[in-house]
Design brief:
Helix content: 55-70%
Number of helices: 9
Order of helices and strands: HHHEHHHHEHH
Number of strands: 2
Structural class: mainly alpha
Strand order of the largest sheet: 1-2
Largest sheet: 2 strands, antiparallel
Distance between the termini: 37 Å
Oligomer: single chain
Length: 208
Amino acid sequence: MILFDIIGIVGLFSIFALTHTLLASKKIKLALKEKLGGAIAFYRFFYNVTSIIFFLLFYLIAPKPGITVYDLHYPYDIITFVFQVLSFLGIIISAKPIDLLEFAGIRQIVRYLKGGYDENDLDEKQPLITGGIYKYVRHPIYLFTILFLGFRPAMDLFYFVTFVCVVIYFYIGSIFEEERLKEKYGKEYEEYIKNTPRIFPWKIKKGI
């Protein structure tokens, strides 16, 4: 029965991840641009809202076996919590160079309503960030989110399986994301890849 619960969690998360990835693809965005024109400005906001809804559906529908994987006691729970807080600060620092209104899809809508939206931007316009914490890893938000989710004083089976799925999805998702970034920024991003690890701050081999 536990095995079926795990399969159910992984299967439902995979559906969420596949939907999330497909909706982020450039092919989908270009097709929508052909139909919507400048109204593609609303797509980023739509994408973010639907992503939240799909994840909430996953959470509500997925099996929850109620099995405890571990439950740390004092002082280990306090130590873990401290690392979790530090990881959250890392997320904030990593997000600071990003235009969060653009990321949320709000700035695009404002530009569209003011008549200044360029539909060739598709759904988002962000500069290439290679300084600060981005000198050490290409995806620091992924790194600190993984650490934030992993440093947990108590973890049940549902959370653990979901956590493993998130880590795998971040890595696979970063591959697709970087293909789009290569196309957008060209040689500048290819050089950045050569010199900077992907998610974790070490390189096993080129591009990892």
